[in-house]
Design goal:
78% helix; 0% strand
Length: 93
């Protein structure tokens, strides 16, 4: 099988197959559920959850791009590292 076809098929599986989407969806749902139980004054917790949700979207898109291309886009990788560094060491924990 042509490598480009294999990558395209794998990308399609990653972006559409429930086996791959479900873990991301469950983690997002857990963050949203936790946010819904925060108290009005828990600004730091809410902000952290908000950042994690945004970071998840970026990581998910990054993984999809790596699957599709077979390579790591160094600029996007550096942007993710920069984002993590801006939000402290706990942003990827």
């Amino acid at each position: 099988m042509n490598d480009n076809i294999r990558k395209a098929n794998t990308y399609k599986l990653y972006t559409e197959d429930p086996t791959f989407r479900e873990p991301w969806d469950k983690v997002r749902a857990a963050f949203v559920a936790r946010w819904q139980t925060t108290q009005p004054g828990e600004y730091e917790v809410r902000e952290t959850i908000f950042r994690y949700l945004g970071l998840m979207d970026k990581l998910d898109a990054f993984v999809a791009t790596v699957i599709a291309s077979g390579e790591i886009d160094k600029a996007r990788f550096e942007a993710l590292v920069k984002l993590q560094n801006e939000h402290g060491n706990d942003a990827l924990d």
